[in-house]
Design a protein that fits this description.
Chains A, B: This is Pyridoxamine 5'-phosphate oxidase family protein. The structure is a homodimer of 222-residue chains. With 222 residues, chain A is an alpha+beta fold. The first copy, chain A, has one domain: Pnp Oxidase, Chain A. In chain A, 17% of the residues lie in helices and 38% in strands. Chain A has a 6-stranded antiparallel β-barrel with strand order 2-3-4-7-6-5. Chain A is globular, with a radius of gyration of 21 Å. At the A-B interface, β2, β3, β5, β6 and α3 of A face β2, β3, β6, β7 and α3 of B.
Chain lengths: 222, 222
């Protein structure tokens, strides 16, 4: 599946930053790690000449991103042929409070993937992708739920974006104040963000003979 | 500043969902509350015919969104005249694990704002917007740091998007399994997400006579 197995993506016109070039990353491991740390992306496409940015789930499998949705949704409908997209994933790691307003910043990791998204038609790949999407927040879940029926599958479209024209941008570290501001009396520092899960709320509609306990693959993520 | 002071935005062709219409919200209070709960948006625009989705900070002031960046950055440069944008803000509130793969979902609140962004040229509005951006994560910060110098201001561009063609989408609540699946033995429920701040890390480069304590406006957010 990996057409280019070099350890880094190639910088192209779309992935070469016009500024803050030191924040750009092209190595596959760094890009994959960011993509694997979340499951909500922002999908950009052009509709009637105007940009649209849609939050949606994604899953990475090797060098491919998979997204899904109703066959009736706008981008998935358009992607029957092909759809030019930009998929962006962003993790906010903290707020950087500098002594100067100008040097306030955010610590973040983001990935931007450009390319042509295609509808997945191969039924085996489609099922694999849907499993990957169900597994994205809690790996293991796809094997612990009822698989989709043919009718449900017919309502669901999957699109694929090959990771090729892709780069990451990362800001880490501390305050970037200018030396002449270090004596100012304002507090400066980084306030890291946290993200996690609260205790699960079990659905009370169950009518089965078994009241299943919260599964291990959920407990482990808490 | 508010041209249309009705309690709701008008649904237009871009903000009328093609599906899951019950998740759409147009009332200003709901839209404002979502926008005010975060400070990182995804800015979509079209460059050379292709979509670009850029994570960036924003601040809401009344019925306007302000974004900023280097005057050299692509969208801010393009917005000297005007730039068609879609600004999307998304809060992930939890993962919905249904008994059926098909009904897995995410609880979320999102706002999508479409329109033409313009560069702010009025110096007073620009300063106000920059203060709002510094205040976005921690209200009160703009008054407790060194204001921008003329040179810094010259490097910084601010763009404005009026909130008019805007809607929210919200999914809340529990599992949406079909009645015939309620007897299945798989655990089902919602795993709420949490987000917050970790203890601040004070910058150790300070050379001033005063070691400022972590300010109240940061402590209150922890």
């Amino acid at each position: 599946m990996v057409l280019d197995s070099s350890p880094a993506y190639s910088a192209g016109p779309r992935t070469t930053p016009t500024r803050l070039a030191e924040r750009a990353r092209y190595d596959r491991a760094a890009v994959h790690a960011i993509l694997d740390a979340d499951y909500i992306c922002h999908l950009g496409f052009v509709a009637d000449g105007a940009p649209v940015v849609l939050p949606t789930m994604y899953a990475r499998v090797g060098e491919r991103l998979y997204l899904h949705g109703s066959t009736g949704s706008r981008p998935l409908h358009a992607a029957r042929e092909c759809l030019r997209v930009c998929v962006t994933v962003t993790l906010n790691d903290g707020v950087v409070l500098a002594r100067s307003a100008f040097h306030h910043s955010i610590n973040y990791r983001s990935v931007m993937a450009h390319g042509i998204a295609h509808r997945v038609v191969d039924e085996q790949e489609r099922r694999m992708a849907l499993d990957a999407l169900v597994n994205a927040p809690f790996p293991g879940r796809a094997d612990d739920c009822r698989p989709p029926t043919p009718k449900e599958l017919a309502k669901t479209a999957v699109i694929r974006l090959d990771l090729a024209d892709v780069s990451a941008k990362v800001r880490t570290g501390g305050v970037g104040d200018d030396p002449e501001d270090l004596g100012l009396p304002h507090w400066a520092g980084v306030v890291p963000t946290t993200r996690g899960f609260a205790p699960p709320v079990t659905d009370d509609q169950g009518t089965g003979p078994v009241t299943a306990p919260v599964p291990d693959y959920v407990r482990q993520a808490l």
